[in-house]
Amino acid sequence: MRVPLSWLKDFTPVQASPEEVAHALSFLGLVVEGVERADKPWAGIIVARVLETRPHPSADRIQLVDVDMGDGEALQICCGAFNMKSGDLVPLAALGAVMPNGLEIARRKMRGEWSNGMLCSVPELGLGEEGLEKGIYVLPGDLPVGQPLAEALGVGDDVVFDLDIGPNRPDCFSIAGVARDLAAFLNLPFNFPPMGAAAVDPAGSAAVVDPAGSAALVEIAPDATELCPRFTATVIEGVRQAAVPAWVSRRVSLAGMRPINPVVDASNYVMLEIGQPNHPYDMDKLAGGSLQVRRAYEGEVLVTLDGAARELCPDDLVIAGGDGEAVGLAGVMGGATAEISPLTNTVLFEAANFDALSVARTGKRLGLSSEARARFERGVDIELAGLAVERFVSLLGPAVRRGPTTDLGRQEAPKVTAVLRAQRAALLLGVPVSANRCAELLTPLGFQCEPAGDERLAVTMPSWRPDCTREVDLIEEIARMHGYENIPRQLPARPMAATSLSREQKARRLVRDIIAGTGANEAWTTSFLSAEDMEKTGLSTSRALELENPLDQSQGLLRTSVLPGLLRSLQFNVERQIGAVQLFEIGNVFLAPLPGERGAYLAEVDEREQLGLVAIGRDIDARWSAQAWEVLRGGLRLRAVRLADEAAPPGTAGMHLDAFHPGRRAVISAQGRPVGVVGELSPKVTSAYGFSSRVAALVVDLAPVLGAVTGMGAAQAVSRFPATDMDMAFEVDEGVAAGDVAGTVESSAGQLLTSLALFDVYKGPGLGEGKRSLGFRLRLRAGDRTLTEAEVTRVRVAVADAVSSAHGGVLRVG
Amino acid sequence: MNSLVDWKAGVAEALDRGRDLVLAAANLAELRSAEGEASGKRSPLAAYSSKLRELAADERKELGRALQEARAELEALVRSRQAEMEAVEMEARTAAERQDLTEIPWFFAGTSGVLATEVALPVPRGHLHLVTQVRQELEDIFVSMGFEVAEGPEVEDDWHNFEALNMPPHHPARGMFDTFYLKAGEPESILLRTHTSPVQVRLMESRKPPIYAVAPGRCSRRDTPDATHLPVFHQVEALVVDEGISMSHLAATLDAFVDAFFGRGRRARLRPSFFPFTEPSAEFDVSCWVCGGSGCRTCSGSGWVELGGCGMVDPAVFEAVGIDSEKYTGFAWGFGIDRLAAARTNLGDVRDLLDNDVRFLVQF
Predict the structure, then answer these.
(1) Range with the lowest mean pLDDT among A147-151, A726-730, B168-172, B214-218?
(2) What is the pLDDT averaged over residues A362-390?
(3) What is the dihedral of CA B198, B199, B205, B206, to 10 degrees?
(4) Residues A561 and A655: beta-carbon distance below 8 Å
(5) CA A201 to CA A401: how far, in whole Å?
(6) Does residue B334 sit in helix, strand or coil?
(7) Does an H or E element contain A505, and which?
(8) What does the pLDDT look like over A301-327, one tens digit per residue?
(9) Given an 8 Å threshold on Cβ–Cβ distance, is B97 in contact with A576?
(10) Which helix (H) or strand (E) holds A321?
(11) Closest approach of chain A CAs to the CA of B355, in angstroms?
């Protein structure tokens, strides 16, 4: 909503500077998005009198005009228009003037004759389109010759505030509404501008409210009354004699609407000023000279003012002429049929009220935005229609006659009241206020406050404030008028309460820190994927959830894995010649629940937190991510888990199996259940992303990992006795996992084993075909004594036997 | 004529031979040469093709069809053999590359948790994402002020995201949020949360006051990405519900947070605004952390930087979650973490946050 300061001043005597006004508007909740100065309109353009017109000696299309610009001298102008005669007053752009379109006026010769300026038309001044008489704007009335045009037409410097009005304040979609708030805030009086002679005394015109009957100017179909709570139609005659002041068009233009012609500009002016959308029809072009309000027929086509043909349905409300032919889309846009032209003499003026939801739906379905729609869908005060007619007539001037009116529907809004407790306001705002003070603050906004005893008020809401129905709505108004800036600041007097992050939240931070400790940087990727992204990554889309309205098709699915996003980021870096990149992400993924299951929050969605890690670079292969997992596991003090390659584990692990290299992957378990996969990406996936080297990766459900993190356990005494280290190498089949052998070593070595390390893996001469040697270092120690050689030997024998029987491992000697 | 019958027999024979060749190929290289021999330029089939023009029209048609069928069959056979061989080769390759992931040293840290093998070289530590760092800093400040950190799902239902927050279906304020909907459940019933406020609803539904909580998390709105908008972004929201909570408490709590996060002496400023779930509602600004209020580029000369929205919890919200709005009052606020991170680091374009360029990540 663009609001010229001069217009606000019609309602309230604001003396404050534009900056102060902008500040006040901001603190009223009317967000100021911009302040524009509209200084020196028409600089260099003055009122001049035509002295004489003469033919140009060597051109037919232009004539010579002598004008007086106030000094009594005749100044010669070459002019392409022929509509003025001697004695007329015209706007003259003097030498040096710059036109609104940027053209600078200079002395120039046209076909051998000097032109010392330019006479201006209505469009050239930005005041509208060509009128009935095309050509130079012949100024109305008696204006002082030589006076700057702006001054003569009552147009001064102005400042325009561009306001962002919230959906809760339909009343502020008008100059009057903004002015009312501003006046109340600045403690200034607020009054509607005088309506002029035509409105004060309707000049003998028949301002009769017709009952709906044969003489009615408008009929509402019975099934349309719900969508049209009020409709007024008024005949206005003699508009060709209308004298709409130039500042009307100027203000309409400053408010962001295009000036068209005086009648249309006055209609728009009324809407902008009081917030009542309205429509003037050319009565003579309107079939039957009357209107009908009805629902559209299925498939009915209407050509709207913007020239487009619109197909309608019975949910839409149309305004039709007396013959039933639609002439406009109620509350959204007029039609081209009975459009006002410079020839229009009799106007049928519509000021009506339409159902907000219906206007919003029709507008949205047809993709039609208009100033009228913007107001109706927020809610227009039903009591404004009468005022709109009065204001419109007054703008057209005394020569215009107001004819009969038909006014159907409700004329008053239902009264809404609420009881306001001053004590409640004081509590909610933290500001001590009395009932009197509340009434003082509310009354200037139009709230009627009656004392109801016990520091309470019975408040009746003004018809233009549909947002106010409850006590708390009044308290907000009190806060606004008191000034948010004047609310004292006091911390809550709350008893001390110790808080901390939850165990899971702390564990999640620990996971981040540990993974970052491996050298990986944390990434953040979008929640959306395409089917191709998933396919490329070896992921099935069978459990992916689809968006109803994605931004585009490449973002049509919700991610079931953080891997595709991470791989895209990896690719982004590799393409920028960064060779070694390690990235991780912790984020939520979304799956359609399995049959018979339901998500934790919503039945339809299995949402879970996932950790993903990817790495590329020299020497990076599956063991890098396996090691990263071990670092994480150790850091979280999780029990050692066996890395195993299960064929088809359920959940995240199973879904990701195909993304990984079949010979270089392992399933991770936590709390005894498979929760993820670690290893290297499948060659298919790496080549699909265009990576030329191996990509190590890890993907794991976070909840079971965080859930397995335990607090501190009891301390265990550290032995003060020396340890005995013992190396044992076993020759095993290549397919036997080192981890499995280690497990056997661990369980067979008994209590004395304090640590176990794989210090050597060997393949080659000296070993059988398809065999490898695994060399373990066992550290044995007792808490209460130095170990004897016999004890160490017993362990050695037990371990050798166990590995032999479990894995066929042969203890190598030497 | 004789020649046609002979030639058709020849084509059949060539097809049989070609089939044998393709089936006999043992690997991709052999398959390629078998394909050439069976249907390439010098194959018997090619020879018959070149004889076509010697035939009358109807005969040409007949032989042509036989040739075409023979070629199609060979082609299909080659493709299927190729797929088989590729699968076998991939299997052989991945089997040959088999790596025992339990060989890694850390796996054997054993019961003591202390590594017995040689120590590995240190690596430079990775960086947490800028947004994570800001989020954690915010969480820490609020925890120190006595707030707990609450979490909720990113996919929500209409009730938690809209209806319980005083936005019934068709409420015009829903237009303030461009919502992504899922093809799940009833149409437009399951959505990506457009703000973190549904966490408040879940908290109030599951718990009796007093509540002092913040909820950080990921949200989505159907905005085309630009320098200041991402369709996926992060918000943090605070909620206080207790007896006697006032707007004065809201302003002072914001001041305390702003002072802790932006630096001593910085303060919050409230301007009236509109949100369906709070009343009174306000926008809150922070005195510029760069210039301290005298006006600079960061604050566009105004001395204030717009941060987020806040207000007193609307009684309709309390009603929806079953809290007595006469007994309890409360306040809430929320703002964008990404924008805050961008503002604090003078980042001109929030889209940089999503590229994950390592050269960017390691700056923070």
Answers:
(1) B168-172
(2) 92
(3) 160
(4) yes
(5) 11
(6) strand
(7) helix A503-517
(8) 998 888 888 999 999 999 999 898 999
(9) no
(10) strand A317-321
(11) 6
Structural element, H or E, at residue B68? helix B57-96
- How many angstroms away from the CA of A460 is the closest CA of chain B? 19
The tokens describing B296, both together, are 């600079």
**Is A623 near chain B, with CB under 8 Å?**
yes
Please report the pLDDT score of residue A207 as a whole number: 41
B314, B292 contact by CB (below 8 A): no
Residue type, A503: R
DSSP A658-686: GGEEEEEEEEEEETTEEEEEEEEE-HHHH
Q: Which long-range contacts (CB under 8 A, 24 or more apart) does A94-97 make?
A: A94/A44, A94/A45, A94/A46, A94/A69, A96/A44, A97/A43, A97/A44, A97/A45
Tell me the one-letter amino acid at A580.
A
**Maximum separation of any 2 CA atoms in chain A, in Å:** 135
3-state helix, strand, coil in chain B (%, to 5): 45, 20, 35
DSSP lists the bridge partners of residue A220 as A293
Window 135-154 of A, Cβ < 8 Å to B: none
User: How far apart, in whole angstroms, are the C-alpha atoms of residue B253 and residue A490?
Assistant: 8
A620 part of contact set with chain B, CB < 8 Å: no
> Closest by alpha carbon to A206, among A411, A388, A405?
A405
A31 interaction partners in chain B (CB closer than 8 Å): 271, 273, 283
Contacts of B87 (CB under 8 A, 6+ apart): none
Q: Which of A440-454, A691-705, B79-93, B145-159 is predicted with the least confidence, judged by mean pLDDT?
A: B79-93
- Does residue A152 contact residue A139 with C-beta atoms inside 8 Å? yes
Give the residue from chain A lying closest to B216, CA to CA.
A505
Of the CA atoms within 13 Å of residue A450, those in its CB half-sphere come to 7
Please provide the size of chain A in residues.
814
Number of Cα atoms under 13 Å in the Cβ half of residue A139 = 28
Minimum distance, in Å, between the CA of residue A518 and any CA atom of chain B: 6
Give SS3 for B122. coil
Average pLDDT, chain B: 89
Residue A451, pLDDT > 90, answer: yes
A409 three-class SS: strand
Which residue of chain B is at minimal alpha-carbon distance from A696? B101
A487 touches chain B (CB under 8 A): yes
Is residue A56 less than 8 Å (CB to CB) from chain B?
no
A582 and A518 in contact (C-beta within 8 Å)? yes
Return the structure tokens found at A728. 């044992």
Region of poorest pLDDT, from A127-131, A447-451, B104-108, B349-353: B104-108
Sign for the pseudo-dihedral over CA of B306, B349, A164, B160: negative
pLDDT tens digits for range B170-186: 777 787 788 999 998 88
Strand A209-210 and strand A401-409: the pairing is parallel
- Coil, strand, or helix at residue A751? helix
Q: How confident is the model at residue A646 (pLDDT cuts 50, 70, 90)?
A: low
DSSP, res B119: P
Q: Which residues of A touch B132 (CB under 8 A)?
A: 512, 522, 524
Q: Which two tokens stand for residue A446?
A: 């139009």
Mean per-residue pLDDT, B264-293: 91
The C-alpha atoms of residue A664 and residue B211 are separated, in whole angstroms, by: 49
**Residue A202 banded pLDDT, cuts 50, 70, 90:** very low
pLDDT one-digit tens code per residue, A225-264: 999 999 999 999 999 888 888 889 889 999 999 888 889 9
pLDDT in tens, B124-172: 899 999 999 999 999 999 999 999 999 999 999 999 999 999 998 877 7
Contact call for residues A145 and A70 (beta carbons, < 8 A): yes
**Residue with token string 């298919």:** A684
